[in-house]
Fold this sequence. Notes:
Elements: H1 2-18, H2 25-41, E1 65-67, E2 77-78, H3 81-95, E3 102-108, E4 111-118, E5 121-127, E6 133-135, H4 138-141, E7 158-166, H5 169-181, H6 190-198, H7 203-209, E8 212-219, H8 228-237, E9 247-249, H9 252-265, E10 273-280, H10 283-289, E11 299-303, E12 307-320, E13 326-337, E14 340-346, H11 350-356, E15 359-360, E16 363-368, E17 375-379, E18 389-390, H12 422-433, H13 445-453, H14 468-471, E19 475-480, E20 483-488, H15 491-503, H16 509-515, H17 523-533, H18 536-541, H19 544-548, H20 555-565, H21 568-579, E21 600-604, H22 612-621, E22 625-626, E23 636-639, H23 645-654, E24 657-659, H24 661-676
Parallel strand pairs: 2-11, 21-22, 21-23, 23-24
Antiparallel strand pairs: 1-6, 3-9, 3-10, 4-5, 4-7, 7-8, 10-11, 12-13, 12-16, 13-14, 15-18, 16-17, 19-20
Helix pairs in contact: 1-2, 16-17
Bound molecules: 2-(butylsulfanyl)adenosine.
2-(butylsulfanyl)adenosine (IVH) binds at residues 73-75, 105, 107-108, 112, 128, 164, 216-217, 277, 296, 299.
Amino acid sequence: MKALTDELNYHNHLYYQKSQSEISDYEFDQKLKELEKLEAEYPELKLSYSPTSRVGGTITKDFETVVHKYRMLSLGNTYSIEELEDFDARVKKGLGTDDYEYFCELKFDGVAISLIYENGMLKRGVTRGDGTKGDDITNNVKTIRTIPLKIEKPTTDSFEVRGEVFMAKELFVELNEARVKEGEAPLANPRNTTSGTLKMQDSKIVANRKLNCYLYTYLDDTETFKTHEESIRFLEEIGFNISQTYQKCTSIKEVIDYINKWAEERHKLEVETDGVVIKVNSIDHQSELGFTAKNPRWAISYKYKAESASTVLKDISYQVGRTGAITPVAELEPVFLAGTTVKRASLHNANEIERLGVQIGDTVSVEKGGEIIPKITGVDLSKRPETSHPVQYIEFCPECGTKLVRAEGEAQHYCPNQETCPPQVLGRIEHFISRNALNIETLGPRTIKGFLSKNLISNYSDLYHLTYDQINNLQFEDIEDGEVVKRSIKEKTANNILDSIQKSKEIPFERVLFGLGIRFVGKTVAEKLAEHFSTIDKIRAASFDEIIAVHEIGDRIAESVVSFFSNPKNNEIVDSLKSSGLKMEIEEKEGAGDSLKGLTFVVSGVFDGYGRDDLKNLIKSQGGKIASSISSKTNYLVAGANMGPAKKEKAENLGIEILDEIAFNQLLEDDKNRITE
Ligand code: IVH
């Protein structure tokens, strides 16, 4: 069985990666069948890297959630050469030299995947998810024939490879032709199809879809490579599928040449691409530049101009969001664009309408970039009909009739009626119960509308006062496709709803804070505020200045937080949540203390007793700070095995104390003793 497994994997690699074959398809199939038969007879001897997993056949009911060892970040985008030159200037300034290189790759428009290899075997394939944790889709990943199940020469026991799963354009067209023939609706585009396919329960269907994957990132704990280029060449060598479109560039000018070269050429590739990813090549330079909250400072993407189409603007409608923001929406003559029919497009705000100078009846150009909602990018004045008329921006909320306001310097109009404007009330509750907030999954917008219409609730804090008698057998009406539908809540559903509301009291404080729906306070900001202030009471007592003092929190957020808590109604709601028993304080992690308070550490290399992240968390839990690169502010460099020599040199030059693992443990012990003494 092992001999057959190895032999078939060898031929598979030859065929799919090198487009060569040493045996006929028939012979290959015969050998595969033989192996399948043996595996059925001796299932306990089936190897994890058996090529039979390529054909699928496993059913996964629920994909397990896996926490990423290294966060899966996204890239900042640029849309013009000027913005790209700004990026280059930031890099130059950050490194303090102009001696650096870039590595350019195309930006593949597919689905990000993380592949974890242990002892040379593909252990797991995980989706990006929210960047911190994703879904384990290993069985589906194994069907992708260009992804090696086993590596012959791994450099370390465990490493991670990241890349983009995609469906070749040609296969996508074929799939759609077949669907239409069968009377099924065509799929929108290769990317969505790939994403849907990877989440299928039956890996046999996944195998039939013949997905492919390009890899572009190598990660391990040992800093094996000095440059990104070295890591890519290594991946190539050990059998990963690397798109042969990359190029090393020694100046931003060469990067621009690369961008121009691929602007048209890229359409000939099998994979859809929407831009270029520019990465600083040296790994030491990368760690010196570090990250912002969401993106690396050492990489950026340049997006090619999106495809556009021309159509007629029939009318403008207005949507009211959960925060009361009004968005004008263009109602268009339907037009086919990049795989889908577009009927509506966002116009963002009144300024945008003014900037475009668009009138009702105009012929406009519509573009679809990476974002789901298309946008209007221009007006063809030569086609303006006599009947066209300027846009009269609304003055009153289309939902509740309240006069709209527009704060100085802001582009958006707002409906100030937070308390009773229906989409705002509903939107805030929907946000509160959403997955990343309080995760009350048994409630949906319909039921909430029902509760609102029966006056059982008027805001999210009222959810915690609902009783079984109130909601069991509750009858309400709902409008679906313009028709009135009668609904009622059954006993079992009523119990489930109350259970999940109860359960949400266990949700950690940072998610409760996010759930409050304060403008501009997204998940990451909520985490930062929670960590800094620890309790809701300290946040509400905080002044504007105290809030902007928090790392990476700016004016706009601080203003919004202060304004939220200056509203007595919001404080009433928070008090009510508090007395219902929701978590309003950050939970102290076990073993927490402040023995390393005021000290800044840089951690590099591998350690015997800790994973690198565990070590960083330990330092943080003791009040220490972690920096990604060495500077004069660094107090200690904690150095494990295989640390990059540049870091060591820099620390020595700056006279920073270097601790090995034993010395670090000693420091920790000494400090703890000092505190307890
Ligand atoms: S490198 C820190 N390289 O673009 C992020 N990403 O917004 C490192 N992508 O999630 C990503 N082609 O799914 C990188 N050649 C390429 C890429 C690429 C496509 C996607 C990837 C990532 C997103 C970043």
